[in-house]
Every structure is written in C-alpha cells, then in structure tokens.
Amino acid sequence: MSRCLERSGRSAVAMLLQNEGELCLLRRSSLVASDRGRWHCVTGYLDSRDDPAAHVLIELGEETGLSRLDLADLLEGPVLSLSGGDGVWTVHVFVATTLHRRIRLNWEHEDVCWTPWSRAGEGGRELVSWLPVLVAESLLNCT
Length: 143
Hints:
- Pfam families: NUDIX (PF00293).
- This protein is an alpha+beta fold.
- The protein has helices spanning 52-64, 131-142, and strands spanning 11-19, 22-28, 39-40, 42-45, 71-84, 87-98, 109-115.
- It has 2 helices and 7 strands; from the N terminus they run ββββαβββα.
- The chain is globular.
C-alpha cells in the first residue's frame, strides 16, 4: 500500500498492540470481505460521528477480547492517509502495550501471532500491504 496525500470520506482506526517488544498480528479469516488469510493489526471502520480514541477500544474488545484495563499504555499516533485496494483511507493510529498475551479472537480472525516487527513477514506470513507503512509512521515514531 502506498502513502497518499489526498483525503476521502473513508475513515478507520488501527491499533498496533505490543507486549515485551513483540507486535500482535492477527490473520484475517475467510469470513471477511477483504485481505483473507493476510496478517494485520486491530482495525475498524470509523463513522464520522465516532471518537477515534473511544472507537479503537471497541474494536480492541471485539477483535481480541481485551479492554483498556488490559493495557499498560495507549498512545495516540498519527492520522495517516493510506491508499488500499478499494480507495484512500484516513487512518487514526494508536499504539498500545498490553499487560499480557491472552487474546480471544472473534470471527474476523483465525489466528494470532506475537513477533518482533523485523520478523513479521517470516514463516509464510503474508502481511496486508498497508501494514509496513503504518508501522513505519507510527510504531517506530511513537516508542
């Protein structure tokens, strides 16, 4: 995915979840509309009426079973304009450290992996195209 400067009405939240120096990657299930089988982070569509900081915690709960109480910290990262297969998205990024690795997946994901970012693409893991940009602009600049 390439970085794009234009804006659109499409918005999302994304959370890069860390624990002991490793990033939580979630593999998209066959039940989702896009990026099936690819690895990414906690994400969700953002309605124009929603507060990004509140909504990312809703997505965290739905996708991992974690709550704000499970996080040691929660940092607001940049707002990025990213282009994907279906257009340009405004992405509100958050970086969090979890107190533990107990993840409960919902139907959107079929697997979870904790790995250093430098090894995220190893072991046959195919990452969503926009994740390297998100990490470079957010994780590496927020920690």
